[in-house]
Amino acid sequence: MTMDFLGDHPALDMLNTVVQVQGEAVDGWRSGADVADWLARAGYLPSGAAMADFSGLPGLLEEARALRELVRKLVARRKDGLAMETVDLAALNAALAQGRRHMELAAGDDNALALRPVYAAGTARQVLAPLAEAAAELLAGDFTLVKHCENPDCTLWFADRTKSHRRRWCSMAICGNRHKVASFRSRRAG
Ligand SMILES: [Zn+2]
What we know:
The protein has helices at 10-15, 32-41, 52-55, 60-79, 90-96, 124-140, 172-189; strands at 18-21, 24-27, 101-107, 113-119, 146-148, 157-159. It is an alpha+beta fold.
């Protein structure tokens, strides 16, 4: 999959691991190794850990997919402007409760010290906890710049970090161009 990181936010990139290909949903996560590979590329595996250490973690695929679909539902409801009191947050809170972390001080660049959180990663749900936290932060924050791609056939989400806040497409090369070609054709036809 080449569309993994168009979302400009890890929780939205997680949603975007399912893409529409010719009208059919294609899941980029088909194994624990797929999930571990994605987590590594997204910067969500403990530093120094190898992807191979996690690809065989029991339940990683199932837990990752469950978290993703849960967050997809919450993001859609938040975007729809539904009253959040009516939304069940228990499942996401349960995922957050799996997080176990401590802080660690390490020598950084230029003689500086860097402080960073270190997460326990013994179970699938612990490995996914920082991603659940990123999703919770997104849901609790300002949602105006969280957008769904304007192509009705596309299911991708993104955080619009452009200066003008006029981003409309998951990717100009994919959906933006399709739109341009379609409106050019309809102009010519008209
Ligand atoms: Zn799109």
